[in-house]
Design brief:
Layout lengths: L5 H31 L4 H13 L19 H28 L19 H11 L6 H19 L10 H43 L8 H27 L1 H8 L7 H7 L2 H14 L3 H10 L10 H17 L35 H20 L1
Helix pairs in contact: 1-7, 1-13, 2-6, 3-6, 4-6, 5-6, 7-8, 7-10, 7-11, 7-12, 7-13, 9-10, 11-12
Length: about 375
C-alpha cells in the first residue's frame, strides 16, 4: 500500500473537521428551532389581553395542571380552531379603528396654546396613562381638570412670566386629550395586527414540531445531516482511494477496460489515477460508496450490519427528499438471495411514514460521525 502524503493526510483531517463543525451547527440549529417551536401559555395570555381590550372573546386557556407542559395535538387543534373563529372579527375591528384614524387631530395653530406646544408630548403621555380606550365625556373632563390642577400647582414654582395662562393651559390640555385618544387607537390597531401575526407564527411553530411535516425540525435537521455526510464520505473516498489506488481498482474495476492510449494521454500516473478515481466516484451514489468502503475494510462499528444501517440512513434521507418521507419500493429493495428487504431494519411497509424522531436523529448523528472518523483514520 502506498503511504499517504502529508498533503493527503491534511486533506482527510480537514474534511473530517469540516464535517464535525457542520454536525455541531446542525445540532445547535435543531435545538434552537425546537426551543423556538414551543408554544407557551404566556403567549396565549398576552393575546387574550389584547382581545379583551377590544371586547373580542378570548382564546381557550388550558387547565392549571397543563400549564408549562408541551401542547398536545388535540390542544393545538383546539387553539387553531379558536384562531380561525376570532380572526375575522379582529380583521373587522382593525378596519373600524383605521376609519377612526382619518380624523387626525389638529395642532390648534390658531389657539392660545401655540407658544406652549413644546409641552404637548408630555401631556399626551399623561392622558394616555389615565384615560380608558373609549372614555365618556365626563371622564375626559375629569382628567382635564386634574391635569390642569397639577399643572397650575407646578407653575407656582415658576416666575410669573413663565406660567401658562389659564386659557392657553385649557387649550393645551384639550389638544393633548385629542392626540392621546388618537394615539390609543393606533396602539390598539398595532396590537391587533400583532395578534394576527402571532396566529400565523404559532401555526408555523406548531407545524415545525409536527412529526414528518414538511418543516418538522428533526426531519429538516436529518436532511441537512445526511447532505453533509454525503459530501464528507465522497470527499474522503477520493482522498483515501489515492492512498490505496490499487486496492480500489481491484474492488471496483473488474469490468472496466482502460486502453494504453488513455494511459498515455494522462501523461503521468498521478493524473491517470485521479481521472480514474474521479470517474468512479462520480458515477456512484453515497450508498454505493458506503458498500465499497465496507468491502475494503472500513468499519466504524463492531456489528456486522454497520454498513447496512448507514445505507438505511441514506435511503431514508432519499425518502424525505424525493417522496415526502413515505416508504417506497426503492427503500424496500429486496435481497435476491433471500427475498427479504436488504435495508428495512424497522419493518416499515410501503406507504408508511418513515418518521424521524429523537432516537433516530441522535443515532444518525453518532453513526454518521463514527463512519466519517473511520474513513479518515483508514
Amino acid at each position: 500500500m502506498q503511504q499517504p502524503t502529508i498533503a493527503e493526510q491534511r486533506a482527510a483531517v480537514q474534511i473530517q473537521s469540516r464535517f464535525r463543525a457542520e454536525v455541531e451547527y446542525i445540532e445547535r440549529y435543531v435545538r434552537l428551532l425546537r426551543a423556538k417551536s414551543t408554544i407557551h401559555d404566556r403567549q396565549i395570555a398576552d393575546i387574550n389581553a389584547v382581545l379583551s381590550r377590544v371586547q373580542i372573546p378570548p382564546l381557550p386557556m388550558r387547565e392549571y395542571e397543563r400549564i408549562g407542559k408541551p401542547y398536545s395535538p388535540e390542544e393545538i387543534q383546539t387553539l387553531f380552531k379558536a384562531f380561525r373563529a376570532v380572526d375575522p372579527e379582529i380583521y373587522q375591528t382593525i378596519l373600524g379603528h383605521e376609519q377612526r384614524l382619518d380624523d387626525v387631530p389638529s395642532f390648534g395653530l390658531g389657539s392660545p396654546a401655540v407658544p406652549y406646544l413644546d409641552r404637548l408630548n408630555e401631556w399626551v403621555g399623561y392622558f394616555m396613562e389615565r384615560l380608558s380606550d373609549d372614555p365618556e365625556n365626563y371622564d375626559t373632563e375629569a382628567a382635564i381638570r386634574n391635569a390642569t390642577r397639577e399643572a397650575e400647582e407646578a407653575d407656582q414654582e415658576l416666575d410669573e412670566e413663565d406660567r401658562i395662562p389659564p386659557d392657553a393651559l385649557r387649550s393645551l390640555m384639550t389638544l393633548a386629550v385629542e392626540h392621546a385618544e388618537h394615539a390609543k387607537v393606533r396602539e390598539r390597531i398595532d396590537e391587533m395586527v400583532y395578534v394576527r401575526h402571532q396566529f400565523d407564527e404559532i401555526e408555523v411553530l406548531a407545524r415545525m414540531a409536527t412529526p414528518n411535516a414538511e418543516i418538522d425540525v428533526l426531519r429538516q435537521g436529518f436532511i441537512l445531516l445526511m447532505t453533509a455526510f454525503d459530501a464528507a464520505v465522497t470527499d474522503l473516498a477520493r482522498v483515501k482511494f489515492r492512498e490505496r489506488f490499487f486496492e480500489f481498482v481491484r474492488a471496483c474495476g473488474r469490468s472496466e477496460k482502460v486502453t494504453l492510449e488513455e494511459i498515455g494521454e494522462a501523461g503521468s500516473f498521478e493524473v491517470f489515477r485521479d481521472r480514474v478515481i474521479d470517474e468512479q466516484v462520480r458515477r456512484r451514489y453515497v450508498k454505493d460508496l458506503i458498500g465499497l468502503l465496507h468491502s475494503l475494510g472500513v468499519a466504524s462499528d463492531v456489528s456486522q450490519d454497520d454498513h447496512v444501517r448507514l445505507i438505511e440512513l441514506v435511503l431514508r434521507r432519499n425518502l424525505h427528499v424525493h417522496n415526502r418521507g413515505v416508504v417506497d419500493d426503492r427503500y424496500l429493495e429486496v435481497d435476491p438471495s433471500s427475498g427479504n428487504p436488504k435495508y428495512n431494519l424497522y419493518n416499515l411497509k410501503k406507504g408508511d411514514a418513515a418518521v424521524i424522531d429523537d432516537a433516530y436523529f441522535n443515532d444518525a448523528l453518532e453513526r454518521s460521525a463514527r463512519f466519517v472518523d473511520a474513513i479518515a483514520a483508514w
